[in-house]
Specification:
single chain, alpha/beta, six-stranded mixed beta sheet, 11 strands, 17% strand
Length: 334
Amino acid sequence: MKLKSIALAATLLAALAAPAMAQIKERTIKIGTGITEDHPQALALKHFAEVVAAKSGGKITAKVFANGTLGNDVTMTSALRGGTLEMTIPDSSTLVSIVKDFGVLNLPMLFANEQEADAVLDSPFGQKLLDKLPEKGLIGLAYFENGFRNVTNSRRPINKAEDLAGLKLRVIQNPLFVETFSTLGANATPLPFTELYSAMEQKAVDGQENPTVTVLTSKFYEVQKHMVQSRHIYSAWVLLLSKKTWDTFSPEEQKIVKEAAAEATAFERKSIRALNGKALDELKKLDLQVTELAPAEQAKLRDKLQPVVTKFSKEFGEATTRELMAELEKARKK
């Protein structure tokens, strides 16, 4: 009798699952990224692909194309809007030209730690930013962590804020990043990430600013001598899907993709944070000279950048900035 009950239950489950599986079509999703294939971001995208395949019974295949083989953040995001690429994961700063509100996430010296960033990105405020993307031809699925950005260069150690003056530094193609480093006296040079290594190798720029894990996985230590843990800006990646692709998905397929994105986000944040400390130790072993700004110098950096915060808070929208600060205050009270 017990065996009959189990068999009946299995039959009922199969019957319930059949309509859902019928909504899933055979399809391939291309995911482009400018990051190296061994970076936690790319590994998380592969995890996303595995989850999608498992949940779709192998019908949906997601393929990751790393190292900028499909373009840079700007060109791949444009391809999503045009419907010629399914997925990509740009830095949130590159979305400012599409939805200016995203700029508030990169205000200098905003977050004290990763937990504050998580609290804001995972809040209704973070979702509100993503909800502005569909009318621009994009679906925002999740926020991956890029991390706190640090400056590297081939010329000299940075021990105080003034040491940045005169350095030619590659920055993200974004006015906030340009003004941040111009305010600090550097020659801010916007370049796509995919062109950065060769620019440093050829001495077209003295250095750049990126999180520690990116410095390691992109082998910037081969063409740089110094890094300062400036933590001047926190960066997040936004996992994007083309709305043209999304609109072809059935409700069940959309559910699978959303669930896979959530699992990949947890995977990525955990793995990149685990690697961050190890990456710093590894870079030191590879003879990158690492300095850290003293608290007084960090405070000086914050003071120097306050005019940038004030200016861009207005540009991105004072109401949006207030909402972000309210969520940040909630996080700090917790």
